[in-house]
Amino acid sequence: MLDLSPETAVSGAASAAAVAPRSSGTRVALLSNPTASGNRAMLPRVRAFCAAQRDIFHYEVERMDQIGTAMARIARVKPKVLVINGGDGTVQAALTEIHNGRHFGAEPPPVAVIPNGKTNLIAMDLGADGDPLETLDRILAVARTDLEGHVVERELIALSDGTGRGRTVLGMFLGGAGLADIMLYCRHRIYPLGLPNGLSHVLTFFAALISILLGIGGGPFPRRPDPAEISVAGGTRLQGRFAVVVVTTLQRLILHGEMPGRAPRAGALQLIAVERRRLAVLRVIFGSLFGRLGKARLRGVHVERGDSIRIDAERSTVILDGEIFEAGPARPIVLNTTAPVSFLSLAG
Predict the structure, then answer these.
(1) Domains of the chain
(2) Considering only 7-11, 129-133, 199-203, which range has the smallest mean pLDDT?
(3) Which residues of 157-189 are buried (b: 16+ CB within 10 A; e: fewer)?
(4) Given pLDDT bands bounded at 50, 70 and 90, which one contains residue 348?
């Protein structure tokens, strides 16, 4: 059976702290992860901001296993908007708990995201890619209105082993094959250097590009990906070594690129698989820069949509919104979609 235990759960103190809501009513419930990289410096300012507002309920967790309790307590104050203050891993854990725990019943509040982690793809997709405290102020201002024009719907990725047993994990961005190895390389080799996030990502990109162009892997470069088979339900089956495998329901990606449009009756899961070939990788880079990805056929670059995607491999590592999951022989990674979930968008 597939091991769905996250290998990168947030660690920290055992206690969780909450600031009680005031009598004027709660418009915003804010869930903060103090161990997120941006929060180490920003959280005192966030706490001071919340203390000055009469309609924010602020709850802090320091471990992922505290999020269930947090959601149960947040549900009692019936917030108009639920804000998650952390990186993509914190968002992934919160979305999974909202879905599996059913704390808010059939109509959970729209979710907003403050970008305060190493990666913030979900926040960027929702237009929250500026200063975290300014973003919180903007969210609160919107929450004091009727939310018209700011609520958007996104399907989520439901990751499981396809057996119907065990827990299902939800997220919005999955990297697999070579991309998962590149992300782990960045996490374990580049981030410890203490460089700014942007510079860390640039160095990782060039290390990965050099390894692909020279056909090498391991040592000072990301490891060479194992062969995999990717199947889209009712359609494409791909086999080989892939430099990049992305499955997402987001509409914006790294470099602020737009995802290809969704055709009528097309699935909600967007798959991009790039073969580990020099020309294929160069094609996808230039295709992304010039807006051709998904619009023109690029040899070695596969862009598909579906509502169910399966990944088989002898050794398969995928990263769903910052959390690592493993599969192996006869233990596939199976991705399905959920019903649409409401989010608060600050995009213009």
Answers:
(1) 17-154 (3.40.50.10330), 157-340 (2.60.200.40)
(2) 7-11
(3) bbbbbeeeeeebbbbbbbbbbbbbbbbbbbbeb
(4) low
234 exposure class (CB count in 10 Å sphere: 0-12, 13-18, 19+): exposed
- The model carries a pTM of 0.78
Q: Which long-range contacts (CB under 8 A, 24 or more apart) does 234-240 make?
A: 234/306, 235/304, 235/306, 236/302, 236/304, 238/273, 238/302, 240/275, 240/276
What tokens appear for 132 in the block?
């975290």
Residue 12 identity: G
Whole-number pLDDT of residue 3: 42
Give the C-alpha separation, 46 to 143, whole Å. 17
Alpha helix positions (H), 77-161: 88-101, 121-125, 132-143
| Rounded Cα distance, 26 and 54, in Å | 8
Computed from CA positions of residues 179, 163, 91, 68, in that sequence, does the dihedral angle turn out positive or negative? negative
